[in-house]
Amino acid sequence: MTGNATLIRLLALIHKEFLALLKDPRSRLVLIVPPVIQLLVFGYAATFDLKDIPYALYSEDRGAAARDLVAAFDGAPAFRRVATLHAEGEIAPLVDRRDVLMVVHIGPRFSADLQSRGSAPVQVIVDGRNSNTALIALNYVRAIVEQYDRDWIASHGLQAPPARLETRAWFNPNLESRWFFIPGILGMLTLVVTMLVTALTVAREREQGTFDQLLVTPLRPGEILLGKALPGFLIGMIQGTVILLIATLWFKVPLLGSLPALYAGLALFLLSGVGAGLLISSLAVTQQQGLLGAFLFMVPAVILSGFATPIANMPPLVQNITLIDPLRYFLVILRKVFLEGAGFDVLTSQLWPMAVIGGVALLLSGWLFRHRLY
Amino acid sequence: MDDAPILEAVGLAKAFTAGGRRTQALDGVSFAIRPGVVTGLIGPDGAGKTTLMRLAAGLLVPDAGSIRALGLDSTRESLAVQAALGYMPQRFGLYEDLSVQENLDLYADLQGVPHAARAERYGELMHMTGLAAFTRRLAGRLSGGMKQKLGLACTLVRAPRLLLLDEPTVGVDPISRRELWAILDRLVKNEGMSVLLSTAYLDEAERCQAVILLNAGRILEQGAPATISARMAGRTWAVSVAGERSRDLQVGLAGQPGVVDALAQGDHVRLVTQAVSDPAQLARLPGLQEARIQAVAPRFEDGFVDLLRTHIGAAGSLRDGDILVDGLPRDADAGEAPVIEVDGLRRRFGDFWAVDGVSFEVRRGEIFGLLGANGAGKSTTFRMLCGLLPASAGTLRVAGLDLRHAASTARGRIGYMSQKFSLYGNLSVGQNLDFFASAYGLAAHARAERRGWALTEFDLADYAGQLAADLSLGHKQRLAMACALMHQPEILFLDEPTSGVDPLARREFWRRINGLARAGVTILVTTHFMEEAEYCDRVAIMAAGRVLAIDEPAALKAAARSPGSPEPSMEDAFIRLAKSAETQEEAA
Fold it and tell me: Which domains are seen in chain A, by residue range?
């Protein structure tokens, strides 16, 4: 009878967990609405690409060469001219007020110098307060000026410069940062939801006094663990799938690699997320502590995962800490599968650390269920 | 002082809405309280006692009606009212990390007591509460009774004319309880203070000069407690049959026509009849042909139960006590082998021994009570028995096993009902029953059968679809008990199963417990209600982590008999034991 009874008990617990989660309209809402909103917000908002950079033109030259350069800027979709200046004194207030990100200054002798000496300076004044944006904007300017040079050389039959940069971006030919971000969001959002579902579950029962009641039933700690882990795991799986569909169908991020490899990664990632959530839950006495614990885990987990800033840029000590961050491994898997078309062969080195993290966390929380009781 | 009422309410109503459900906490309550007396506000949890107190203190705004305290409108002149009266809520806000003196200073500062007047007032209060020796101790390190006394002292730093006390004695040990009452009596007599005190202990009502009986937001009755008990004159009896256990006798009597109340009380059954009766009439009741029948003085509780029955009708329908036996192995002769054995059990938290050498045995089919105040170590003992807490030392055996290390199937033989009626609030009644049945491994067919049994037996059929969180306290208690019985356990652990429920629900509960014990179920129950000990076969009286005495209730009471108190109550017995333990300790 034991095998059968175990199954009955386990199913009852899982059924109860789902009922408790889905019956309350508020908790139902928490599972669905925030992830969708976050996905849309991140999908559209989290991007390194600059569009419509507001700039001002201060051209003191009315020559044809200057006009061509201005036309090149006006024609570029990344730039939008918001002001045309007539005196040097007008530059500072515009930049100060953040009306423009940069000012292109073409000196009075630009066309003449270009004709007579073969080269002429173009001054670009950039608002450096956000260094990242400034660098990206400068890159765009450099690309426009390079193109301008090439056209000039071609039309004037001049000799090309000795060495020329020829770039090809692999995996993301147009360097769209959305392709970089959205796979990462899949990892981040599934982590958030599984953590919220699992981190509160034991703490809630402790608060209501029902956890003692569970412990005196024949349910074994392992069964309680499984019953608590599975709902979070399944909800994470469903959510991961929904985000995957939105990412590929709505945001058109190419999915080149092996889907089974991606799901294997998701499963192990959820295992470690559920493990961490249950660990927090078994340590927390109240739901508030559980929630706080979940955020204490999630914020560093996201920052240290390489979601936005590369792990390679972090100090060596911090790089070592990232080794216990499951999101770190899953992000690699996501990006490799989405953009590089990787399969299982490449990903083993990322899969086993998550399995270890998940296993250790689950074992520890199972032990804590029975030993941390007061 | 003239005789104008010091607190007066007219048509007071207040409702709360939570989770889309509206609860009418007070429904058209009118009363007038005389100055210079202790008035008791009596009723079960959820009757509206706290709401009434908070309205009087101007902390809530009534939906309808008005309430005036000390001649001021509590609602419109709330600041003036709060400055003039003293209010001690159920959980008084003592700062546990401050010393007794610092707590007093803080409340004196908050209430603007002039520095010059403090020394004298502190002296009086500390003397009155007996805390003078502990002024430097941290409040968190005081016992439950001492905390209540300190709370009272803090409320009294500025000698209010009207004192509102919300359940000041709940869970407090009997000695401290008596001391609290002595303080109140002195306040009323010497300082001319008026006191409104709420309580769920019915024996306390008899110490009040006036009582207001509240039930479900309405006043059942108000007046002097003596007039309420006087109405029961000629209707209260003590009956006993030689050779029959009083709880067996009680089962036969409860619910008989003409019987309002039947209570096991040690070696006899306390019987309350619907009309004035005489022994010859009573002897006609089933099982009483050979009985010894004696008239006894009516108590306040008899009057309260009678009132509840007439007002709520037969809602708490008392039926034959045998119903529960259905599905349980009927077993008349309880075996002598102990089912629960505890020997030298100890448990330490930090440097504090919560349980310090407890030993007892419980036989099969026995109702065994652990009686003691909050902090006596009952719950800790209980949790160790259930395997929820490891013991620091000693041995314990439940059905021959230590549940902490036993196989999971062993846990299937026990039922457990905790203090907080641990239910899943956002699941319905039916879902709760199903879950607990499945958690004990009941398959679909058996589950449905037990569910049907639980719904009928506990009168829950009408509530099957309702969320457990929305049930009344009495129904929650029934559901919690049903959940604990789904798998027909051999041993039942009950932790404070009746705290806060009304006397009728408490009676119904004990009737079920009796039925179970008759069927051979071993029952271990903890309680801080002294009179509940009377319903047990044997009781272990606990204080400060130790067992003071283990015996049958009648024997415990008999030991406390003295020329001064020929008919001692369970509380008298408790106090005598606690005091003699104290003197022994001092002598040692």
Answer: 2-46+176-371 (no CATH), 53-155 (3.40.1710.10)
